[in-house]
Amino acid sequence: MTYRLGVDVGGTFTDILLIDEATGETYRAKTSSTPEDQSIGVLRGIERACEAAGVPMSEITEVFHGTTVATNAILEGKGARVGLVTTDGFRQVLQIARSFVPGGLAGWIIWPKPEPLAALEDTVEVVGRIGADGAVVTELDEADVRAKLRKLRAQGIEALSVSLINSYANPQHERRVAELSAEELPGVPVSVSSSVLPELREYERTITTVANAAVQPQVARYVANLEAQLRESGVDGRLCILRSDGGLVSAAVAADNPVNLLLSGPAGGVTGAAWVAEQAGYPDFLTFDMGGTSTDVALVQGLTPRVGRETTVGDLKVRATSVDVRTVGAGGGSIAHVPPLTQALRVGPQSAGAAPGPAAYAAGGEQPTVTDANVVLGYLPTDLAGGEITLDRAAARAAVKSIADATGLESVEAAAAGIIDIVNENMFGALRLVSVQQGFDPRDYALVAFGGAGPLHANALGRLTGAWPVIIPPSPGVLCAYGDATTNLRDESVRTLVRRFTEMTDESLRAVLTELAGKACATLSEQGVPEDEQHVVYSADLRYHGQGFEIPVAVDIDAFDGAGGGLAALRSAFDADHQRLFSFVLDAEHELVTVRATAHGPRPQVAAPTLEHGDADPGPALRAQHRIWVEGAEVEAGIYDRALLRAGNVVPGPAIITEMDSTTLVLPGHTAAVHPSGSLLIRPADTHREN
């Protein structure tokens, strides 16, 4: 028997999911994260999951890991001290940046501009120049380069980034600087922009390369340490790390290009949701991942997540491919408050966190949170996880009462309902960002809800968006780890061209795509993926000539040589996307800016779990009756044990469905049907469709 392991490290908990590849049976473990050394929590969780399965750790063939090491290094300002080598005259490229100030009117007055990841005193200029066409304008002065590198060595830099003007067109000078740095700065890791991001736009290429250098030492140490500990524990399977775009790379590749890991955690949830939605038969869906502090949302079409070309973490925005995830500060721990000036109820983005946490945790927290409001309304029973967790309803009521007093509402329940309504609207706004604002109607999609708090709010978000069914996966609290274990190896090769369509032919474009595919596939071959199991997906960033931004468009390589294929197909696809996004098209020449080829390895052969079949009656799973507050009145709701539900059962609302890591609320007028794959499908009760 062989097992694959999904590992997701969050800020509070580390989730482990062990999957029997033959049967699809899963074993899970949840342990406290260990920020000082994440590998400690990971190893502890793996041991517990193997104990639950009754298997030795030596039977684990593959470990797939979503990590926040790179993310935390940026957010906490604990990256390496980075030296930056630029072209003569470009020393202040990071300080000039882009002319954009976040915030509303006059935001620039109070906005504290973040410090660049490479300080000005650690930035040096070297003589040498490459033209936009790739020609050498000024030869590289190697003596000057050596002198500048010695200066950086004296200043004690811990990592080096090299970003020279127009190096995307010709990397010759950058590569020579890297060679010289190996002599002058032995042992210092080097990030070269023509390898990290071979695309135009000087600032974006430089900040991305510097970010890569800043987190590289920490990620490399973590990966090496985890691999060593896995070997010592008897795990001989290979270690792969999840990228921000939802694909996997080997541990070695991840350590060399850690800037591609900045959204590793949220990407795991989206890929896990794709697996669950595929089993339930819904290829188009929105994802809704609600945790304790924030909520992440994304849109998926044809089981393929929409991918963006930028990754944002805190104040840092880099040019790295990632799943198009939007985040709002709305979670179970979000604090409700009433500002004195407006007397209007607000929820978040401040959070009670894990310590002291919501008042209901009885751990010293006193401020009212979303979790407290759910307890007051009865949506969260006070006895959870078979009695392992007990919530203090009196403390929750006392906290929420402060909101009732401040707003003049007639009851604590009304205040709690207001808190829930506001946080739901906040999350609805995020879902609109990935759907309506991008030209997609959410009513054409299902909604996959997960995370510890997602299933509690999922039914309400379904009503707001009109996205049905609402799909609640099995073990929604560990879905990110499931996503890590059910995705595939991936690599990407990119080239910036900047060519008008009249300057190109179908043949010349195909030649470039073929070359890029060869490079991407070579990386997978080095990681042991057979050539006959690889497939390549192509895309191009297009714009109208004269525009300052691009739109990514998929390239159908199978129809490339046919009638209406090639450049003609790209032109039509770009116009359609431009119409959808901006409601107009231009009678202007099209221009191709960047092309990319993404090589995919095979999807893992993990058997889908199948529930024992039952009839429509969920009676055997009914454990108690419980009064909850809905729409201004108390109603009787059944409490069901999800572990006892069978395929075909239909749970009528109002109902509460409990499991070890989450609680699902089914509102009145809705039903939750149990799909054979184990997911709950929530719909309005008057909707009759096949499961």
Describe the structure.
α2 packs across α8 (202-232), α5 packs across α6 and α12 crosses α13. Helices cover 31% and strands 27% of the residues. The chain has 691 residues and is an alpha+beta fold. The radius of gyration is 26 Å and the shape is globular. The strands form 10 sheets. Strands 13, 14, 15, 20, 25, 26, 33, 36 and 37 form a 9-stranded mixed sheet that branches. The model has no long low-confidence stretch (mean pLDDT 88). A hairpin with an 8-residue loop joins β21 and β22 (346-351). Among the domains are: 76-208, no CATH class; 334-417, no CATH class; 490-600, no CATH class; 610-690, no CATH class. The longest helix has 31 residues, at 202-232.
Describe the secondary-structure layout:
Layout: E1 3-9, E2 13-20, E3 26-32, H1 38-53, E4 60-66, H2 69-75, E5 82-87, H3 93-96, H4 107-110, E6 123-126, E7 129-130, E8 136-138, H5 142-154, E9 159-162, H6 172-184, E10 190-192, H7 193-196, H8 202-232, E11 238-242, E12 248-250, H9 251-256, H10 264-280, E13 285-290, E14 295-301, E15 304-305, E16 307-308, E17 311-313, E18 316-318, E19 322-323, E20 326-328, E21 334-337, E22 346-351, H11 370-376, E23 383-384, E24 389-390, H12 393-407, H13 412-434, E25 446-450, H14 454-465, E26 470-472, H15 479-485, E27 490-500, H16 506-526, E28 535-544, E29 551-555, H17 566-582, E30 590-600, E31 622-630, E32 633-641, E33 650-652, E34 655-658, E35 663-666, E36 670-674, E37 680-684
Parallel strand pairs: 1-4, 4-11, 5-6, 5-9, 9-10, 13-25, 25-26, 32-34
Antiparallel strand pairs: 1-2, 2-3, 7-8, 11-12, 13-14, 14-15, 14-20, 16-19, 17-18, 21-22, 23-24, 26-37, 27-30, 28-29, 28-30, 31-32, 33-36, 34-35, 36-37
Helix pairs in contact: 2-8, 5-6, 10-15, 11-12, 11-13, 12-13, 13-14
